[in-house]
Amino acid sequence: MPEEAQQTMPEEVQQTISDGDLVYVDYSVWILLPDGKEDLFDTTSKELAEEHEQFDEKKVYAPQPIVVGKGRIFPGWEESLRSTKVGDKTVVEIPPDKAAGERDPRLVELHSIREFVRKEIAPEVGKVVVLGNKKGTITAVTAGRVRVDFNNPLAGRTLKYEYTVTKKAESPADKARGVIEMDYADPEEFDVKVIGEDVMIKLPDVCKYDELWFVAKYRVVSDLREIAGFDSIRFVEEYVKKEEPTEDEPSEEAPEEEGAPEELSPDEPEEGEKSAEDEPSEEAPEEEGVPEELPAEEAPESETEE
After folding, report:
1. What is d(CA 24, CA 64) in angstroms, rounded to the nearest whole number?
2. What is the reported pTM?
């Protein structure tokens, strides 16, 4: 297994890596093809993903937390990590027997297309499906039949890892945050407090209704005990009562309009406006242009036609 490591930090400040360490790794994984070409499989580099048209907007492109020596990554990569140091840029080729293993022909199955119709799955080459609690990839669709390969997509492949360990979690609090990020999501919104051998984690509001957290919580607890070594783990959910408006605050039902003029008394009409006495009655509005009827004693003499 050829390996090349280039030191990028002074020897005296570099940290070694051992089983049980939680480290952050910047990496790119390439599939070495029989014709000598390399096909990018996974990367933490946004620029590289965009260059090879594999950018995923839902993915976080940053160094990822990995625990060493727990069998969670390929054996060949774990062996390489044990021999490297924080800050080293390392390139290693991993054969199939130390990666995803050799392909097993027995894991390639034919299924009736009716099975996909019942499950409302449109069979297409390259689509990943789950049948019988097994995840596989559709490799062919023929008349009435669908071929599904349940081998690991990397089975039988030689892989090339280009990686750099950027840092190692040292303190119990850093290990706790690393576990949260590894098993669930970004730990920035989690308030972590370590008290001796115990840890108290205040959960963000999203965890109150996120189904993914309900599943991940038990894995987080297990890893906090195994990797960080905590004896007691407490999760805290906080529900804050909303403040009600006080009596001094203006009512929302009838807010006072800003700049509204003061109410004038009936005997002091504003200039240019009619008083209430000048306005016509709503019960018997006068028709426009009809002269006001005069009292009988003041009625003018009627005019006669000439």
Report:
1. 5
2. 0.72
